[in-house]
């Protein structure tokens, strides 16, 4: 069985911003962790390319919607490559195979009697591509998220009979694991408790969409089409392919159902209510979990073009590099809560945690070993015992890091690794090998101490692999070891068992005494930002 996880499929109305980068980096850490544990991962990302918002954006830019989508989605692909995102699939909803899949899916839903014609009246937000329930203001209502005027709509559309699925959806969201974190579950429970209403799944007079078979003049509502992109991504290895019959049931052998949809909290209702009902209607299994993360602000303010404070992922990448940003976002913001990007805190955390605590631990320990033990890992002596204090600290860090990553608690995982590095630094300070080395007959003891600290450092590097893969690889290289390939799924017979090389590498005492240590190279440069990002 595979472990399928998804980011949202990002709208191509604009280039990627920090919000989409945040979700994608978090998913990347999960995908890497699951691969390292031996899972056959299918990590899906991509672009959502239909709908009125995109049609209007293209019109405003004076280009065809297709050209516009081609340009922006190529930008996403390129950006994710440069961030070294390890996705396995990149789906575009303008892919002809996706059109075919949507048509097949609709045929099933229609055959089930779940499509009816109805009149849709209400206030619509084009930026959300969503009807708003009850705008607070009677006059000139605005979207609470986008602060833009809502538009009145009155049209005859096709409706999906969501109301039929009230009982199933109630039972689904009552499962404690389905919606995470728990605070988000209550939001959805309240919505469902009001009684589910049928929702419109087509639009008339909107050419930039997939035509609804058998209903001339109708195109699919962008959300109906977009959610199905998660299935289309599983059709072919590169998400594309020639048009032709699509076998929906064959997706069960290609990674469906997904284990996890990671999304922002604003699109929870679509994923936790509409999407499962659509799948039930089509007779397909449901995803196991929907995780709604929080929103990022910048120095306490909502990021927006009008405020001119949008954090550009391209700028972050160029000025700061990948690992510092990964570390800061994953270590500092509890995944699920809103978070605030603060430049000073960002540089402080990166410099303290990665450069001072972790980088220096490696530098000073390996340079002593190089100097006093012929450029190699010293003999382990007493340090090979499993009850060495650093062996115990290492075991604990491994358990906690894995427990954190399993529950998408990146903060806990990062803190566990940091505690191990702090413990190793503390041990080194207490033992003060630089003093003992000057005394007679201390060499064996010093060797054992340095071995223990180097071995704990190796574990730090191992445990960092899903969170900051480049730093992890450089540290392992400095210890004369091979890095882990967390971007490619392995073929472990049994995921989460010690058959996974990464889990096996968490055992104490694996650093081979006598192994030559390569010449020192910095593993991470300090972050010095002399102007706002
Ligand atoms: N196209 C839909 C998703 C369809 S999934 C089948 C969409 N796209 S989006 O590009 O507008 O948003 C993608 C994600 O980015 C959403 O999950 C949204 O919550 C997230 N974010 C947008 N701004 C954000 C922040 N400022 N902070 C964190 N995430 C934010 O919705």
Salient structural properties:
6-stranded parallel β-sheet; 18 helices; alpha/beta; 4-stranded antiparallel β-sheet; Rossmann fold; 533 residues
Folded structure, characterized:
- With 533 residues, the protein is of the alpha/beta class.
- Helix content is 44%, strand content 14%.
- It contains 18 helices and 15 strands.
- It has helices at residues 18-36, 52-61, 65-82, 96-111, 166-174, 182-193, 222-227, 229-232, 268-281, 313-320, 322-332, 343-372, 389-406, 410-431, 433-436, 443-463, 469-478, 501-504; strands at 2-11, 40-48, 89-92, 115-125, 130-132, 151-160, 179-180, 199-200, 202-204, 218-220, 260-264, 289-293, 296-298, 301-302, 339-341.
- The strands form 4 sheets. A 6-stranded parallel sheet has the order 3-2-1-11-12-7, sandwiched between helices. It has a 4-stranded antiparallel sheet with strand order 5-4-6-8. Strands 14-13-15 form a 3-stranded mixed sheet.
Q: What's the total number of strands?
A: 15
Low-confidence stretches: none
Largest sheet, described in full?
6 strands, parallel
Total of DSSP H or I helical runs spanning 4+ residues = 18
Specify the CATH architecture of the largest domain.
Answer: 3-Layer(aba) Sandwich
**Apparent shape:** elongated
Rg, rounded, reads: 26 Å
Q: What would you call the structural class?
A: alpha/beta
Mean pLDDT equals 94
């Amino acid at each position: 069985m595979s472990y399928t996880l998804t980011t949202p499929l990002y709208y191509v109305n604009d280039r990627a911003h920090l919000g989409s980068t945040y979700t994608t980096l978090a998913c990347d850490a999960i995908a890497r962790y699951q691969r390292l544990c031996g899972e056959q991962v299918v990590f899906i990302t991509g672009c959502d390319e239909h709908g009125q918002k995109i049609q209007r954006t293209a019109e405003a830019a004076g280009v065809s919607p297709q050209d516009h989508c081609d340009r922006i989605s190529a930008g996403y692909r390129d950006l994710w490559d440069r961030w070294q995102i390890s996705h396995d699939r990149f789906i575009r909803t303008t892919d002809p195979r996706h059109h075919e899949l949507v048509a097949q899916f609709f045929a099933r839903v229609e055959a089930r009697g779940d499509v009816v014609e109805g009149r849709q009246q209400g206030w619509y937000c084009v930026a959300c591509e969503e009807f708003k329930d009850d705008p607070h203001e009677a006059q000139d209502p605005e979207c609470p998220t986008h602060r833009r005027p809502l538009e009145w709509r009155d049209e005859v559309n096709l409706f999906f009979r969501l109301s039929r699925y009230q009982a199933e959806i109630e039972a689904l969201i009552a499962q404690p694991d389905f919606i995470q974190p728990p605070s988000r579950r209550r939001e959805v429970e309240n919505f469902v408790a009001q009684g589910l209403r049928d929702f419109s799944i087509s639009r008339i007079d909107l050419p930039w969409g997939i035509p609804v078979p058998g209903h001339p003049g109708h195109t699919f509502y962008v959300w109906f089409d977009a959610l199905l992109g998660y299935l289309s991504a599983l059709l072919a290895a590169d998400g594309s392919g020639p048009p032709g019959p699509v076998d929906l049931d064959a997706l069960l052998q290609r990674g469906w159902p997904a284990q996890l949809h990671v999304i922002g909290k604003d699109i929870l209702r679509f994923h936790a209510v509409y999407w499962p009902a659509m799948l039930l209607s089509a007779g397909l299994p449901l995803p196991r979990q929907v995780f709604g993360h929080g929103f990022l602000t910048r120095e306490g303010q909502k990021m927006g073009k009008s405020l001119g404070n949008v954090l550009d992922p391209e700028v972050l990448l160029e000025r700061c590099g990948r690992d510092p940003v990964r570390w800061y976002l994953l270590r500092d913001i509890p995944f699920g809560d809103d978070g605030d990007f603060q430049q000073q805190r960002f540089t402080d955390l990166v410099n303290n945690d990665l450069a001072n605590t972790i980088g220096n631990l490696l530098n000073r320990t390996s340079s002593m070993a190089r100097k006093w033990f012929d450029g190699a890992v010293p003999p382990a002596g007493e340090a090979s015992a499993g009850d060495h204090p650093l062996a115990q600290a290492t075991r604990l860090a491994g358990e906690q890091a894995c427990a954190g990553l399993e529950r998408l608690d990146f903060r806990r995982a990062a803190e566990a690794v940091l505690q191990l590095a702090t413990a190793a630094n503390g041990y080194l300070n207490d033992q003060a090998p630089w003093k003992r080395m000057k005394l007679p007959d201390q060499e064996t003891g010093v060797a054992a101490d340095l071995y223990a600290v180097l071995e704990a450092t190796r574990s730090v590097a191992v445990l960092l692999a899903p969170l900051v893969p480049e730093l992890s690889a450089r540290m392992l290289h400095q210890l004369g070891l091979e890095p882990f390939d967390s971007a490619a799924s392995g073929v472990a017979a049994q995921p989460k068992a010690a058959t996974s090389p990464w889990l096996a590498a968490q055992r104490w005492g694996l650093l081979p005494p006598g192994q030559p240590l390569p010449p020192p190279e910095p593993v991470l440069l300090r972050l010095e930002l002399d102007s706002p990002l």
